[in-house]
């Protein structure tokens, strides 16, 4: 197996990503937002090649970045380049999702619809893949008052789901277990909460820009 090249031989991009990971390890949310912006398109492609369902792939990508945020301190530049490390996390998460799906039976209701069918009905308003992701939005929300106002418009269930998923770092399945709610319901709460947050935060950014202009 070829040994990883020393950091001195890395490209400027690799060195920049390594610096962002180091800052993430220290709890720097702005660095995390920058890391997401620079790598999410690549990692989404990695996930989508394994998990072909786009909605599932988006869920997995969110879990990947929660994992990155929690484990950034463990990145070792002597072992691998940053994007290689990130890609490995994404690939393992995607493979794990396929394994979980194979072990979880599809429960049918009295009307014959599976949980997956109901998920699709509940999740019509999906977040587009090329829009800023939820972690990106949270990382960019430097104005605590704006974020607080935007969170206030969410329902209690949406706020609780969002807090568990993106601040406590739980997977969607873990959030569902914590709240004792169906997985499809929790996913629906999270997606609608993120759509609402995006609209609200975008409005706050536009208002700030108008004031500065």
Q: What is the element layout, followed by pairings?
A:
Blueprint: H1 12-25, H2 29-50, H3 54-71, H4 82-103, H5 115-122, H6 134-140, H7 144-152, H8 156-167, H9 172-179, H10 183-212
Helix pairs in contact: 1-2, 2-3, 2-4, 2-6, 3-4, 5-10, 7-10, 8-10, 9-10
Summarize the structure.
This protein is mainly α and 213 residues long. Helices cover 70% and strands 0% of the residues.
Which key phrases capture this entry?
Arc Repressor Mutant, subunit A, mainly alpha, 213 residues, Rna Polymerase Sigma Factor, Chain: A, 2 domains
What does it look like?
By secondary structure, the protein is an all-alpha fold. The protein folds into two domains: about 10-105, RNA polymerase sigma factor, region 2, helix turn helix motif (Rna Polymerase Sigma Factor, Chain: A), CATH 1.10.1740; about 120-213, Orthogonal Bundle (Arc Repressor Mutant, subunit A). It has helices at about 10-25, 30-50, 55-70, 80-105, 115-120, 135-140, 145-150, 155-165, 170-180, 185-210. Helix 3 (about 55-70) crosses helix 4 (about 80-105), helix 5 (about 115-120) packs parallel to helix 10 (about 185-210) and helix 9 (about 170-180) packs across helix 10. The longest helix is centred in the C-terminal third of the chain and has 30 residues, at about 185-210.
User: How far from one another are the termini?
Assistant: 56 Å
Q: Globular, elongated, flat, extended or rod-shaped: what is the shape?
A: globular
Spell the H/E element sequence: HHHHHHHHHH
Structural class: mainly alpha
Strand percentage lies at under 5%
Number of strands: 0
CATH fold-level assignment of the largest domain = Arc Repressor Mutant, subunit A
Largest sheet: none
Q: Can you tell me the residue ranges where pLDDT is under 50 for at least 5 consecutive residues?
A: 105-135
Superfamily at the CATH H level of the largest domain?
Winged helix-like DNA-binding domain superfamily/Winged helix DNA-binding domain
CATH class division of the largest domain: Mainly Alpha
CATH structural architecture of the largest domain: Orthogonal Bundle
Share of helical residues: over 70%
Average pLDDT value?
A: 75
Number of helices: 10
What is the C-alpha radius of gyration, as a whole number of Å? 18 Å
Number of domains: 2
């Amino acid at each position: 197996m070829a040994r990883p090249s020393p950091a001195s031989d890395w490209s400027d991009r690799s060195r920049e990503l390594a610096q962002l990971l180091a800052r993430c390890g220290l709890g720097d949310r702005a660095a995390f937002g920058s890391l997401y912006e620079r790598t999410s398109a690549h990692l989404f492609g990695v996930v989508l090649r394994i998990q072909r369902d786009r909605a599932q792939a988006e869920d997995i990508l969110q879990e990947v970045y929660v994992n990155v945020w929690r484990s950034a301190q463990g990145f070792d530049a002597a072992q691998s380049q940053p994007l290689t490390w990130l890609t490995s996390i994404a690939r393992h998460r995607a493979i794990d999702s396929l394994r979980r799906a194979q072990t979880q039976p599809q429960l049918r209701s009295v009307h014959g619809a599976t949980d997956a069918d109901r998920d699709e009905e509940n999740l019509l308003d999906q977040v587009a893949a090329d829009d800023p992701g939820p972690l990106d939005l949270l990382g960019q929300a430097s104005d605590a008052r704006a974020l607080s106002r935007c969170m206030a418009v969410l329902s209690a269930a949406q706020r609780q789901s969002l807090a568990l998923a993106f601040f406590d770092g739980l997977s969607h399945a873990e959030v569902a277990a914590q709240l004792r709610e169906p997985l499809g319901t929790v996913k629906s709460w999270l997606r609608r909460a993120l759509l609402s947050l995006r609209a609200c935060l975008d409005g706050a950014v536009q208002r700030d820009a108008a004031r500065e202009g």
